[in-house]
Amino acid sequence: MGWIGDTVGSIKSIQIRQLLTQAVSLGLIVTSALIIWKGLMCITGSESPVVVVLSGSMEPGFKRGDILFLHMSKDPIRTGEIVVFNVDGREIPIVHRVIKVHERQDSGEVDVLTKGDNNYGDDRLLYAQGQQWLQRHHIMGRAVGFLPYVGWVTIIMTEKPIIKYILIGALGLLVITSND
Amino acid sequence: MHSFGYRANALVTFAVTILAIMCTMASFSDNFNSPSPTARVQVLSINRFQKQIHGNDEVTMTLNISMDLQSLFTWNTKQVFVFVAAEYETPKNSLNQISLWDGIIPSKENAKFSIHTSNKYRFIDQGSNLRGKEFNLTLHWHVMPKTGKMSADKIVMTGYRLPVDYR
Predict the structure, then answer these.
(1) CATH number for domain B34-161, candidates 2.60.40, 3.30.70, 1.10.3910, 2.10.110
(2) Which of A59, A61, A109, B130 is the most exposed place for a label (fewest CB within 10 A)?
(3) Topology with regard to the membrane (chain B) (predicted)?
């Protein structure tokens, strides 16, 4: 019971100056995180520079919970590249490998077909009804590097929101009660 | 000052820093490997060569693929993804790339082999341009590391000219 009493006591003893300092430091943490994320967006040219692999369709290369770093450059898309794409009518982007490319002579537009390494057939079944090919605007970026396991943090937090709230609550309490 | 939370924080920060440094070093060490892979891809026969109902040419063929990619493997290599692509140009398209066969090589022991296979993915043109068309065969590989940067390269093979008539 001792530490609860201490906590309540330290909350009571907060003065206005201290409160301001803590608000500013909290704001600094939040804004610097935002700066890093937006900076990454600028450097990589992709609207989401980091994605978490959610399915096992690229195993054994990428497992569920791995993190991928994306890069979107002007370079043309070629077979073998691992791209992240959005299909109309689907919220979650898909990470699969390009197996066919047809690039137009006049306009330079591309038709792309993808397939998951671990899937039996190509992705036409995943595309929108009647869609045969992916175009450039469907593609969000290509994977250039990856880190294993780190993405599990986000997967757990989205699937078990209670853990997220506990974590945020504990962190908030720490920030409020810390006297440094 | 030296509360439980403080110590736990210091410990976790230190552990994560060391792990990140080790991952970076492992990824960096791949630069010291200079691979010298060899491969050979041959079209043995054209099995079917027809125009589909929609007007697109389709061809099926038998391939012989042999390779030795053992030198690509380092201690930071999880797998090597290898595929054979046909590349050609048509009046409509400046580039057509079609993957004919692919495979995942999980370890160095499996990186030297020779197989006899028909094309795994359908070789269909956008249009009807395949009669007498010469295409390039290229062997591509993508090295997937245990952690860090992915790398890719290719070997261009001798091409092949498709027959002038459907069969």
Answers:
(1) 2.60.40
(2) A109
(3) Single-pass type II membrane protein
